[in-house]
Model the fold of this input.
Amino acid sequence: MEAIPGNDIPRQVQTTIKVFPNPFNDHVRFVVTAPGGGKGSLELFNSLGQKIKTVFQGRLQPGVNMFQVILPSGKSAQLIYVLRIGAKQVTGKLVQLNQ
Done:
C-alpha cells in the first residue's frame, strides 16, 4: 500500500488580512489570521501618510482575530491599512465611498 504524501507535513501559514466590504461606506471589518500571537497593531492612513485611526493595538491571539471600525462618511477616499505583528508587516488599500 502506498502512503499519501502531504497529510502529515506541517504547512507554513502566513499572516493574512481580509477586509470587507471594500469599497465601504462607513463600516468596515478586518479579519486577521496570524499563525502565532504577538504584540501588534492595525492602523489606517490617508494617501498623504497621515494616521487616520488606530484600529487595534495590543496582543494578537494566534489564529483568527476580528476588528470592526466605523469611519465617518465623507467624500470618497483611498486609505491604506498597515498591520504589524512583531517584525512582520502587511499592507493594503481600502476605498471609502461617499453615501
Summary: The domain at 16-96 is CATH 2.60.40.2550 (Immunoglobulin-like). Confidence is low (pLDDT under 50) at residues 8-12. The chain has one domain: 16-96.
